[in-house]
Amino acid sequence: DLFNGFLEFYVYNIYKPYGFLKVHKQVTVNGETPVTDWEKEKLAGTYTFTVYTDKDCTKPYDEDQTLQGPLTLTVTIAADGTAKDSDPVEILVGDYWLKETASTNGVLTEDIIPVTVTAETTQEKPAVAEFTNDIETGSMTVTKKVTGAYKTTEKYEFTVKNADGKYVEAELAQDESTAVFTGFADDTQTTTIPSYAVQDGKTFTITNMPVGEYTVTETAPIPPVSGCDIEVKYTIDGKTVTTATATVKKDSTPNVEIENNYPEAELTITKTISGLTDAQAIKDAAGRITITVIDNKNNILLDGVPLTASPFKASEDGKTYSAVLKNS
Length: 328
Fold this sequence. Notes:
Elements: E1 18-29, H1 37-43, E2 45-52, E3 72-77, E4 84-85, E5 89-92, E6 94-103, E7 112-117, E8 127-135, E9 137-148, E10 155-162, E11 167-172, E12 178-185, E13 196-199, E14 203-210, E15 212-218, E16 231-236, E17 239-241, E18 244-248, E19 255-262, E20 266-272, H2 279-288, E21 290-294, E22 300-306, E23 313-314, E24 320-326
Parallel strand pairs: 1-8, 9-19, 12-14
Antiparallel strand pairs: 1-4, 1-5, 2-3, 2-6, 6-7, 9-14, 10-13, 10-15, 11-12, 15-18, 16-17, 16-19, 20-24, 21-22, 23-24
């Protein structure tokens, strides 16, 4: 019985093996180290990673439900873009899946990284889940074409906006035919709207632009004569469009062509001499009257030309002289 016999107790110690885990985080642009200030600043920030026990990332790791929430690791990337490691955490041995679930800069990768934690992993040599956030950039070219009855060596200005309506800012190269993307300017927060310029027959290139849609708009077409109608046509990679919205991709460069066609126009000059009846007197008076015509670019079209000289022609009665100037 209980008083004359023996009572045996068995104590079991259940051993749960632990290991260590950390995250290695790097940021790249088209698979390369960030170069421009915008790239570095865009990727700088604090990234948060959640540990899951299933590959679909629906069951966060929470040992014995005692963590009061999922197990997370964080990595902060500085403005220089250098890769960093999280602090290692102690975790039960097993297979896990990690997912990037938050970042202070809004840049997230959708990658799910599997990792196995063994009892051999230590705080100095933990299991590592490697993440890379890569942003893709590309280039855009803008070509200028002037057709019709007017030619000029002046540059035509244009702006570039992204899909959010923010103007592209870029640093102009020394040759003034290329520029490197540096960021976006909100037109509600800046008094100077970034613009670029290109001559007839030339091409302007903006590089390092984040992939996405951009709209090119010519801001100041150059009229040869005040009030002259100008036909402006946009084409993207040879296709005529109403709005010049092109898609910048990593592996292809869209070309936006802006064509300004200046239709031929005429200026008719008419001068009538009155008060004289003698034909020779009328002709002598016409020879003393000179006409000068200067356009709005200070080009001299006629310089003190008498009515009796070309391009003027006299009427049959010799009293009216007229000339037609064309902008061709």
